[in-house]
From TrEMBL, chains A, B, C, D:
This is Inositol 2-dehydrogenase. Residues 138-327 form the Gfo/Idh/MocA-like oxidoreductase C-terminal domain. Its EC number is 1.1.1.18. Belongs to the Gfo/Idh/MocA family. Residues 6-126 form the Gfo/Idh/MocA-like oxidoreductase N-terminal domain. Pfam families: GFO_IDH_MocA (PF01408), GFO_IDH_MocA_C (PF02894). Gene3D superfamilies: Dihydrodipicolinate Reductase, domain 2, NAD(P)-binding Rossmann-like Domain. GO terms for biological process: inositol catabolic process. InterPro entries: Gfo-Idh-MocA_inositol_DH, Gfo/Idh/MocA-like_OxRdtase_C, Gfo/Idh/MocA-like_OxRdtase_N, MI/DCI_dehydrogenase, NAD(P)-bd_dom_sf. Homotetramer. It catalyses: myo-inositol + NAD(+) = scyllo-inosose + NADH + H(+).
């Protein structure tokens, strides 16, 4: 296909506008064909200066607009299920921001609808799979050079949490990245979860259980522990150490420029996920565009989106109960075998 | 005191012989005055070429030998209680290798006997407190520059376990170091313990639960997690990251010489605890000799020895039960306030 | 401009074919409109599967082909001068691979021709300026947070040199990157050069002076030293430490994934400049496309290309003479002030 | 020998007093038997609280004092030659602080006097040879695992220079350590030296040529470059990278505790050589005591002391002349073969 892939972007908020910019100015082989947002003023702002884009208040209108060949869903999570099903009706390939569907029941409906179609249309926006360091780690684990993985030790720290961030969101928003990454790196499902609660940091807002220490068990007996600390004050740090039978591998100790001044040698720590994972977002969307133009669907599937939601729900119950909660997954359709 | 401190060394096995060498050739201000071992041939070998040392089969005879002013206990753990009480009878200061007394009941009897004396005579051989990196971390935590500590993430890996090493020994021998270090770094008791069991490594002997992931809770609500993996195959690695309210600090990523050859940049990892902690052993014994010559007792106390045993026992029960076990400590005598 | 920028790529060898791929599949906002190579078979191979590209044996034909709006020169160095002047005749913006013109006399003719036009058309392909680490270092130096830079210590190592690589090429091909980077980072000209010759490595081909140690002096009294070692055997390493009045900063110790196995902790070292600087090439071409579409010319100028050639020539004379050689530059036209 | 080695310490200034403390409290197997200093009050202060030490104004009286079996010279450099010859007269083994004798002519007289005795009595105080990192590097180079060494890149930075520090002292005091280390690591003489002078740092006192960049050539064609920067403002940094035919090895990037706080991950940099090399001083004196008690002389020889002085003198001439200066050494007596 030499023609540019026409993409409808649903949602013109922070993330949607950023994807519009990415498709227009960074990614090769695609163009923004339509944008939908209930706030059409915001949608117009997002596409200012871009030719050939139609602006819509309704999802359906955007999907049916001239030139639309694929859909990027960046609207709020609760709107995803309807948008996904609308895309299925039209046979349009979709890149859907995470969470695919916030409630696992809705996520399962999407899985079942896609399974009924009999072909994959959805790539879920777990962009860490497109990060160079994670890919290197994945490649090492898959090679089995270090034997079988036994444990993943993960760290997920933010400078501070946004207003309204709840204790449950540490699990179902922050840790959802580690849930997907662990499933992908280990190539197995997470089967149980326990959430430990150290005394909250004085730097956390009143009432927020922060940090938390989340321990997952997997189908083949590995352990995944995650320190999640969203008011750490000191930076955006995402690290992962895989401990295997004959070696360990660690990523995330960013080490690009070492500056030595009075008092010590210092390395910068990224303050923001958009800085740390900027390249991963670019590669994610490029990979989706490239695959779509070849008529393929690759990357994290609707099943991955569903499983992440189900594990996150179990995690929130574990946080609330203080005990160990098992993860119950529906049978996996053959489409995702 | 300008005269050298005369030390009776109890036990002439691997550790005892190493302490004889250390006192004779490394430490300033002390000399080996007597050695006791049921195997007197072994004791004679240990002191070959050293003048002025008497060799004994019995502990009592060594303690009463001419020139003995202090005792270093390096005999097997089950012999410690009797040796400690014999030293108490004679008012001799003691450096006692860990575990002070393997069973917490016996350890408590030692605590009570010392409390009755009304003055400290015992320093327990938790040598990590004398390691330069741990001391730097302790000093940073005590300064509260990073705020209150919330979590410690610990790694304890050996190349391989010796014959006869049991699943319980991962907790009560290997992790006992982390138990002491955590109590010391955080300056609070450990109150509960859970032991998680990932599927054992193919590199572990049949039947050994290795690795284990041990999670402690503390009196003030901190968490301490320890990966213990005694058949890691790749080295002796002891790391500790303290996560505090406004920063984190990590030790144990040895980084002395970086060698770059075809394929990568490599740092050596110590293969043995005697290499990693050689300086700590030297400093520990030197500190004990220096304090003893000044008539002082410093360092880890009999209470520390007792608490470590009690926590380790709870850990073994947690390993066996699969659940969370609380630690029950006797009241702390005023002597150790 | 919403239309894609039509680029004529001159040269379809290794580098040219890679740029064709980059424009077709990676870069946003451009397309390959024409390719020229005396070997038209090779040119056809390079554009197989790309629509709308014309293939030519002659440069002039490619520049005049329909849809050509800009030129990327990736032909052999000796062909650059003629191609550049042909582009000037047509007023086409150019991205010219390094060396802009191998001989400084020819490079100066290009400078003078562009100066006569009175506007910049040329960006020279010094891609390190687009590397994220170098950009971070540049930004730090420009901020003067560490005071004035006093010295740059540079390392430039390859696994092995290709057949036919001469001692002079260590200076005028390998070190030419450091020549540009030093001029750019320090924002001043290099004024003298000395080349020291340690005894050659046993791993270097017979007769090749490898490694070399090159020392540059700058107009404001800074020093730049470069270890260039093209048969190091162990990897592609490019490092730079800037020593300033109140601190130092170092880049190039890649540190992405640390793998610990028996014997040590290892980080991978890139084996190839295309791996190390892949992102820099992508960003360089993207920056050129973006600027060109806005009607701008940014990045390294023809003057930078000329100065690099002049310094490299002085370096080769210094290698041959064993002494210090001063760099003589023509007056800088106002266009490059 | 079970008796403690009686040491006469010459000089009770900063360094002498530190050695008195070291022998009294740190080192095993020795005691301070006598101290000499023209300022006997200072000498008395240095030995306060130590039994069995005699205090003298004159060197000869100290050497002849009861119990003196060995000499540690820590007086000012100009006093060393006479003290060394006095020790030779009495057949006493000597540990002599660096520089052995400041002027190479005097150093050569010491060499000749010792050669005439026909046996070594002198160990020169180049303590870096006792630093664990340097020893690891030496051991790696000697193993030839990386092939032959081709270059050493050295860094020597101080926070600030003491009052009265001259441009020549950067070479003959600071760099004298690298001179010895390079001769020892490479096991060959330095044959020529060039000193390059970047524009001085604004942080250096008026008139001081700081930093300097010193390049040595060796007898077998290796290069040794040293950045010496004594008013760097940011710490005491001593690094050395050995570049060999099939790999490189680097020491001196201290990496003990990594502290992450807002803005970055930080490692402490030592501010003082007594911190960085404290262990090396202890090991140096212990090694000397141990060897002396066994009737041996090991460590850096009088020849090493002489060669260091001769190379440093050439370095100062190179600094003054701006050119390359060859090092002329007297023939090496067989005693030092």
């Amino acid at each position: 296909m030499s023609e540019l892939l026409g993409v409808a972007v649903l949602g013109a908020g922070h993330m949607g506008a950023d994807h519009v910019r990415r498709i227009d100015r960074v990614v090769n082989g695609a163009r923004v064909a339509a944008v939908a947002d209930p706030d059409t003023g915001r949608a117009k702002d997002a596409v200012a200066g871009i030719d050939g884009v139609s602006v819509h208040a309704e999802v359906a209108a955007a999907l049916d607009a001239p030139g639309v060949q694929a859909v990027l869903i960046a609207s709020p999570g609760p709107a995803h299920e309807e948008a996904l099903l609308a895309a299925f009706d039209r046979g349009l390939p979709v890149l859907c921001e995470k969470p695919m569907v916030p409630e696992s029941a809705g996520a399962l409906r999407v899985v079942e609808a896609e399974a009924k179609l009999g072909r994959r249309l959805v790539q879920v926006g777990f962009m860490r799979r497109y990060d160079a360091e994670y890919q290197r780690l994945k490649s090492l684990l898959d090679s089995r050079r270090l034997g079988r993985p036994l444990m993943l030790h993960c760290t997920h720290r933010n400078v501070s949490s946004p207003p309204g961030f709840t204790s449950a969101m540490l699990v179902n928003s922050s840790v959802s990245h580690e849930i997907d990454v662990a499933r992908w790196l280990l190539d197995q499902e997470l089967t149980a979860v326990t959430v430990l609660r150290p005394r909250p940091s004085a730097g956390a807002p009143e009432g927020l259980v922060d940090p938390q220490f989340v321990v997952f068990e997997t189908a083949e007996g590995a352990l995944v522990d995650v320190e999640v600390f969203v008011n750490s004050g000191f930076g955006y740090q995402v690290r992962c150490e895989a401990v295997c039978e004959s070696g360990s591998a660690r990523i995330g100790d960013e080490h690009t420029m070492v500056v030595t001044t009075a008092g010590g040698a210092r390395e910068e720590v990224a303050q923001d996920y958009l800085v740390r994972f900027a390249d991963a977002y670019d590669r994610e969307v490029q990979a989706w565009v490239d695959a779509t133009r070849r008529g393929k669907v690759t990357g994290p599937s609707a099943w991955d989106g569903y499983a992440a939601s189900a594990v996150a729900e179990a995690g929130v119950r574990a946080l609330e109960s203080g005990g160990r909660v098992t993860v119950e997954l529906a049978p996996r359709p053959d489409l995702y075998a």
